[in-house]
Every structure is written in C-alpha cells, then in structure tokens.
Amino acid sequence: MHRDAPKKDVDEADLKVGKPKSYAAGIPGVAVSLRRGVEQMGVTRTALALRLLNQRAGFDCPGCAWPEPREVDGEKRKLAEFCENGAKAVAEEATRRRVDREFFATHAIADLRDKTDYWLGQQGRVTEPFVLREGATHYEPISWDAAFDLVAGELNGLASPDEAVFYTSGRTSNEAAFLYQLLVRSYGTNNLPDCSNMCHESSGAALAASTGIGKGSVTLADIHHADLIVVVGQNPGTNHPRMLSALETAKGNGAKVLAVNPLPEAGLMRFKNPQNVRGVVGEGTPLADEFAQIRLGGDLALFQAVGHLLLQWDEEAPGTIVDQEFVKSSTYGYEDWAKNLLEIDWPETEKATGLPREQIERVARMIATSERTIYCWAMGLTQHKHAVPTIAEIANLALARGMIGKPGAGLCPVRGHSNVQGDRTMGVWEKMPESFMDALDREFGITVPREHGWDTVDSIRAMRDGRGKVFFAMGGNFASATPDSDVTAKALSSCSLTVHVSTKLNRSHVVHGTTALILPTLGRTERDVQESGPQFVTVEDSMSQVHASRGRVKPASEHLISEVAIVCRLAERVLGADHAVPWRSFEKNYDLIRDRIAAVVPGCEDYNRRVREPDGFVLPNSPRDAREFTGTATGKGTFTVSEFEYPEVPAGRVLLQTMRSHDQYNTTIYGLSDRYRGIEDGRRVVFVHPDDLAELGIADGEIVDLVSEWRDGDRRAPRFRAVSYPTARGCAAAYFPEANALVPLDSVAEKSNTPVSKAVVIRLEPHQHS
Ligand SMILES: Nc1nc2c(c(=O)[nH]1)N[C@H]1C(S)=C(S)[C@@H](COP(=O)(O)OP(=O)(O)OC[C@H]3O[C@@H](n4cnc5c(=O)[nH]c(N)nc54)[C@H](O)[C@@H]3O)O[C@H]1N2
Ligand SMILES: Nc1nc2c(c(=O)[nH]1)N[C@H]1C(S)=C(S)[C@@H](COP(=O)(O)OP(=O)(O)OC[C@H]3O[C@@H](n4cnc5c(=O)[nH]c(N)nc54)[C@H](O)[C@@H]3O)O[C@H]1N2
Ligand SMILES: [Mo]
C-alpha cells in the first residue's frame, strides 16, 4: 500500500460521472475505511487506532459531534463504534506522511499556493514549528521559544489588543479552549471568532430566543424512541453516518422518518448497516417514509404552511393537535403566532417550496399525528439569509405540540466539529454573557474586557480594512473555510503576522501575513504525556454529553507539543511570568485546568470526578430536563412571528448551494470520490436539474464558469463540469471550498451573521478557453 503523499495534483480531466446511489454504507463503506487507514497509517497503526476509536478507554472521534451510546441508558457500544468517515478522519490524523524541513526546503511558497486543498492536506503532518520571514520564499524551521517570542512581540507591539483576532476551529479540547479564551481575554480582547460563526450560529440565535438555550434538547435515547424524526437540511449518510444507526434503531421501534432536502441523498433513502446481517447481505433499511424535495431556502415557507394546517385542524377538533395545557403553562406568544398563520398564500408557498400542496398536507399530517417528534437539522437550514426565522419556525411547531422536554421528542441541531459545542461552553465566543466574565474575574483575580468582539465575518472585514493586524488560529483553515475567498486572502495578506496552530498543512499556511508561523500540535488520537504523567482531555458532543478522550497513538513527531502547552507557554510570554493565572502549573497537570473549569463554567461542578465516569456526564438543560425556559426574555418557551420569505432568483439564474462531498472533512479533502452522488476523480462539478440545463442552453458535461451576482458586482469561479442531476428545480450544488469564492462576504444571515453558503444566485457561462 502507498503511504507516500501524492506528488501529482488533481486533474479534473480524469473526472468520471456515474449514476447516483440509492442507499448508503454497507460493505463498500467498510472496505473504503480499511483501505484509507492502511494507505495512510500502515496495518498496525490502523488496527490500534480503530480499536480505540469511540471506546470508553480510547479517544473521541475527531470526525463529527454525533454522540456515542451511554451505559446509563442501558445501551451498549459496538466493538466498532465508528463509521467510514470517522475512520477516514483518524487515518488523516494518524497518517505516516510528513511535512518536514526537507519538504519546505524543496517547495517554495509560490508553488504551494498553486496546489489544491487536496494536495496540500495529503502531504501529511507538520513535524516542527516553521516560520516564513518577511519577503522569504520558503518556510524555515524555528525553535518553539523563538516562535513564542515572535508572537508575543507582535501582540505586545499593537496599539490595542483589539487589533488582534483569535480564531478557533471546533476540534480543540475543552481544556485547551478554556485556557485559550482565558489567554485572549487576559491579553485584553473578545475578538474570538470561531467556525461556529459559519456553522450553527443561526441555531444558537434562534434557540436562545425560543427555548432559552442555544443547544438541542434531546439525547440519543430520545432519538431511539421518537415516533417521527424530521431530518431537514442535513446529509447524515455522509456527515453524521453513525446517526443512520440511530435512525435504523428508531425505525425498528416503529418511527417514521420525514426527509426534507433538495437532493435525494443516498443516506436519507436507504441504509445498509455493516454491523448487522441484513445490512451486509440484505436490502438494508428504507429510511425516509416521506421525501419532500424542497427548493433551497423554501423551509420557512414549508414550516409556516405546516403551522397553518396544524392550527386549522386543531380548530376543527380542539385540543387534538395543539398541546393547550403546555402552551398555557409554559409558553409565550402563541396567539400572535397563530394570528400570523391564520391565512397563507398557497400559490406563493408552492412556489417557495417547489412542493405541491398535497405533499405539504401529507407532511403536516405526519407532524400532526406524531406523539413524539424530533427535529434534526444542519447546514441546509443555518446558512441562509432567513436561517434564524426558519429555525424559530421549527421551534414554534415543537412548542405548539408540546414536543420539548418529554421522552422521544425535541429539537436537535446536529453539530459539526467534534468539540464545537464544547468550545462554546468553555467561553470561545465573541459575546459571552456578563455572568461568565464575572466568574472569570472572580476566579482568577483579573478584569477581562466586556465589549463584544468580532465574529468571523467581522474579523475578515476588519483585516481587510486594516483594523485587524495579527491573526492567530487555534486549528482550522480560515483561508479556505470562509466566504469570498479572494477578499479573505487579501485580508489575511494584509496582516503583519498570521499564526496557525495546526496538525496538517493547509491553504491558510500559504495565504499568509508579512510574517507567518505554523505551530504544529498533537492531534486527538495521540498520546499526551506531561510532567505529572499521561493526560486526557474532555469534549462535549452534540447532545451535551461531556466525556474524556485519551490519545493512544505515538505522536507524529517528537517536536510536537499539545494545544494546552502552546497556550500556556505563549501566555507566559505575552502576559509576563508574574501574571495572576498560574499558566505553568496547568501545562503540567490538566486536572488543575479542570478544577478551574468547575469553578467558572455553569453546569461543570465537580468536573474532574464526573468526567471520569465511564460515559462522563450530561450538562444540565432546563428545557430538556424540566420544561423550563428561564433563559428566554419572557421566561417561557417563546413563539416567534416571522414574515414569509424565500430567496428570489431572477430569470436565467439558478440558486447554488455549496456542500460537502462524501470524501472530505470541511476543507480537508480525503479523496476524490463522492460515490453516493456518482462522482469520481474530480471535484469541480456543478449539479443542475436536467430541465434547468435545457432551459439555460447548457449541455450535460459542458465546462462552465460559475458567476455569482451580488449588489457589489460579479464573482467568478472558472471551469466546473455541468452534471445533470435530480436536484430540485431551479437549484444547483457545488462543493465547498472550491465554490467559496462565489459567496459574497456581505451575504449573511440576519441576526447570526453566518455566511449564506446555501443560496448563492449564479449564472452559468460556457467556459472560454484562453
Ligand atoms: N465526513 C464528514 N463529516 C462531517 C463534515 C465533513 O465535511 N465531512 N463536516 C462537519 C461539519 S463542521 C458540519 S457543520 C456538518 C455538516 O453536515 P451537513 O449539514 O449535512 O453538511 P452539508 O454538506 O453542508 O449538507 C447540507 C445538506 O443540506 C441540504 N440543503 C442545502 N440547502 C438546503 C435547504 O435550503 N433546505 C433543505 N431542507 N436542505 C438543504 C443539502 O442538499 C445537503 O444534503 O458535518 C460534520 N461532519
Ligand atoms: N461555502 C461553504 N463554506 C463553509 C461551509 C459550507 O457548508 N459551505 N461550512 C462551514 C462550516 S459548517 C464550518 S464548521 C467551517 C469549518 O472551518 P474550519 O474549522 O476552519 O476548517 P477545517 O477544514 O475543519 O479545518 C481543518 C484544519 O484544522 C487543522 N486541525 C485538524 N485537527 C486539529 C487539531 O486537533 N488541532 C489543531 N490545532 N488543528 C487541527 C488541520 O491543520 C486542518 O487543515 O467551514 C465553513 N465554511
Ligand atoms: Mo460546521
């Protein structure tokens, strides 16, 4: 097997387009995960790594945030509690490929800039700190001490701490995240943008207003016992494959599944579970009982129409659909909401959703007759201009039917990064509440700034305009993950210093400030030994379960230090040796960090003991635990009244969503196979409905430029292959991050400021050869 990194970059001429699949996983999934493991890690490392993945004595999967089964719910973990894509995530991290001195000596930065994200990521793990000095053509090695001095010098030389930006991606452990925000706030700013700003920020904004807590209200056991699971704007077969097992269990218990999506995703249609006999040899389990092929951005219209029907049917037979008792005792604003939905415009609703009225009535009937409904959603809802009202409308339905805080029912925003939710709990947010700041001040005897900082989009604006001067990233790939790639590239290049704490090479290392640093760190899978002995870290999954994760694989290089160590050593340099926070002691023993988390973070009392329980513990959540909504402005579950709204598309244009293939983790491209959608050996494709292609006069297979139209002008992404595909009419799809250049920086969701990555108005132009 080849463990060498690919020398050749992607050649889009090799692209093959086949038929999309109608089911997910099964034997091909197992085979792919083993092959990718052995290619990158070799046989022994693959066996060790996969044996420990998501086991109680092992490490948390660095893939998605889907929870593991818990003993207290009477549930067992399978010997292989991971999925094809989790195994790929591990293979990527535990790879034997290396980006070392020799690599940077042979590759000038200018050459690296021309490579795809795929090629860059495949080169492997960074082995020691590297610096790109002003005007230099190559990165060169630098000692850890010199690197920290360089960062501290720049930070302490700024006119104000608010000229620095501190980004976080959602893989960082709770311990590292807690110390990181403490460092940033001790230094003097709340400029703490994170990947969540581009991800579930809209869910947080909507739910905080509706239920008082920006998180979901279900556990895995609830999913297993629901009688209706609505999966909307989410592709679990690719992005949360272990969720398919949960859906299969629920279906075994009699649940129905309603899928709402513009694409007939294989994982929503049928599932072959490799862990049972039927999955291996049989037909598998049909998943969606109803598939509503909605237009991009049509969900608000759909859920308003459903609300209208529920109210109408309840009026015909009072109390049969609306949970009057719950509405009376625990909610606020029901009358206004009902009044707003008294009449709806059916032709407009059909136009917005692309769904016939009969189907909307069928969907509403499923929701009306369910006794235990769970709503699951992801990026298909959050990355729209009207994302916050759309999610609030789902919360309205759940409130009206009393579907929050009872077994088998609730709201379930399915998180992305494995610890994105935990990072927030630990204080990584540009606008943490006053009470959290007070607790920090009290615990450490410091005074942290209160003024809100910049989120991701505001940080790009600030760097573009010269107000942001130093960019520091705890993980992630800011240059590729953010919208408006050209604007972001200019913003980063105008910084005096860009610093990335990374495991692997990525575009953000080659789109850099005047000086740039790569600080390589240990990954989730790796052993972390400090002065007091081997350490573990903790993470929080999508269902607020906090638990330990122990790395067990030998680190990629002896020069790597942990994220905790990086933060502690940098803090000493930036804040001085006599700073009030005992940074040095935290690096030696992570228990001491957890004691502080216990003192500061709500719900984390007795943290050190509770995270040592076999499954850790679940954070308190008053809507889920007690049907209490004390966090809202009204103190009750709050209905939201929203205007009818959907994206307008001028004639001759289509609406583009940017999404993930089956072979990538965000900007880390594992490979070139989106096999469920029939794409192999290439990524520059645009999926369009055959009738739309015909109307636009574009042939299936033709090479086109995608041109996005926005009020400040056009943006162009060249050379995409048009692929005739059964998506909803008027809608198109291309992969992230190739299509990010098309997402205008100012096209953001109201209230959450999340980039609108799922509704870009584009035209297709035949590509002109130059
Ligand atoms: N293997 C793997 N796992 C991952 C990731 C990965 O890249 N690879 N990324 C992780 C992260 S950070 C996240 S946030 C999650 C993302 O998980 P998803 O949200 O599943 O990711 P996307 O690929 O963006 O898919 C969006 C889905 O929503 C649908 N959709 C798009 N627009 C609309 C709309 O307007 N209405 C409706 N109803 N549907 C719509 C799309 O057709 C698609 O099926 O996955 C996490 N897990
Ligand atoms: N157009 C478009 N844009 C999008 C999206 C979309 O759907 N469409 N989705 C958005 C979403 S949901 C998200 S969450 C963001 C993701 O944005 P990011 O989180 O910034 O991006 P990733 O690709 O997940 O980051 C990958 C890099 O993280 C580093 N890394 C991996 N593991 C570790 C670790 O353990 N520690 C450290 N320090 N570094 C590590 C590696 O160097 C790797 O190259 O992108 C957003 N951008
Ligand atoms: Mo995400």
Automatic annotation (TrEMBL):
For this record, the Gene Ontology CC terms, alphabetical, are: membrane
All copies of domain Molybdopterin dinucleotide-binding, residue ranges: 655-759
Q: Provide the alphabetized UniProt keywords.
A: 4Fe-4S, Iron, Iron-sulfur, Metal-binding, Molybdenum, Oxidoreductase
User: Which residue ranges does the record assign to the Molybdopterin oxidoreductase domain?
Assistant: 125-502
Q: Which cofactor does it need?
A: [4Fe-4S] cluster; Mo-bis(molybdopterin guanine dinucleotide)
| Domain of life the protein comes from | Bacteria
What family is this? Belongs to the prokaryotic molybdopterin-containing oxidoreductase family.
- What protein name is recorded for this chain? FdhF/YdeP family oxidoreductase
Give the organism the record lists: Amycolatopsis carbonis
Q: What are the leading ranks of the lineage?
A: Bacteria, Bacillati, Actinomycetota, Actinomycetes, Pseudonocardiales
